[in-house]
Each structure stands twice: as structure tokens, then as C-alpha cells.
Amino acid sequence: FYKPCKFFLLPLDGGEAEYDARYRGLYAKDPFGRYHDCAVEDFQQCLVNGTIDDCQANATQMCEEFENLQEGFLHFDHIGGAVLAIFQTSLPDSMYDVLHTMLDSEPAAVPIIWPLFILISILNTFLIVGLFVAVITDTFKRTDTKYCEMEENDEE
């Protein structure tokens, strides 16, 4: 079972109090003391009827670090990986892999992700239509040039 989620690293400067104040009650904490958004819906539902400590004790899932998806090609860690991921969105079969990974891994960015994917789809559509029109126009131009040359040869 795999679901991308995010864990929030402990601060290196010793700011554990601010760390707890920021994420306590919003996210569950794993045995290593890291807050994460795995099963955040279950955790929030538990908070309706229980205390933070009770819900924290019942949090059974935790996040693990793992390599990037699709043999390391699906990520936004640097510009090269981002370009490959955006190229994957232009292909209809693999667009949903990128979309669902982004939606699951960064819940706070969902309002930004949907307009981004709509914009990418529109731009990719114009790019593909432009390439198609360029190929058709070039083919007609070459055919017209050949036809004109053949007419000139027939007249001589």
C-alpha cells in the first residue's frame, strides 16, 4: 500500500516548542517525533470526540522516506526533474500519475495544483495544434513547389 504524504522535519536549531505549537492538533506524530499528514482525515475525525493525546496514541500510520516515483523521474526537486514531470503531463496516460502524486503529497497546495494543470493542458494543446499546423503547412508548401516545378518542365 502506497500513498504519498508529507512529514514535517524537526527544526535543527532546537525550536521544538514552536514545532509542537505549530503542528500539534493538526497532524499526527510518528514514533520518531515527526508530524505527518498520513491519515490526517482519521486524525481530525478522532479530534472531534477525543483529546489530542488519545488521538495521537491511536495514530498507527507513519511516513517513510523513499526514492522518487517512476525510477526517479517523477519529482520537482530540481529544474530537470520538473521539466520531465511537466512533459509527462502532456502525455494523456501519465498525466494522472503526476496529478495524483501532487494532490496527495501536498494537501495545502491543492488550490494551486488544479489551475496549474488546466494551464499546462491548454498550453500543451496549443503546442500540439501548432506543430500539427506547421507540418501540414510545410507539406502543402513542398507539394505546391513540386507541382509548380512539374508544370514548368511540362511547358518547356
UniProtKB/TrEMBL annotation:
Q: Which residues cross the membrane?
A: 112-136
Q: Which GO terms describe its molecular function?
A: voltage-gated sodium channel activity
Ion transport domain mapped to chain residues: 49-143
Tell me what topology the record assigns in the membrane: Multi-pass membrane protein
* Key words of the record: Membrane, Transmembrane, Transmembrane helix
List where in the cell it is found: Membrane
> Which InterPro entries would you find in this protein's record?
Ion_trans_dom (IPR005821), VGCC_Ca_Na (IPR043203)
> GO cellular component annotations, sorted alphabetically?
voltage-gated sodium channel complex
> What's a Pfam family this protein contains?
Ion_trans
Q: Superkingdom of this entry's organism?
A: Eukaryota
Query: Could you tell me what this protein is called?
Result: Ion transport domain-containing protein
Q: Which organism is the protein's source?
A: Hemiselmis andersenii
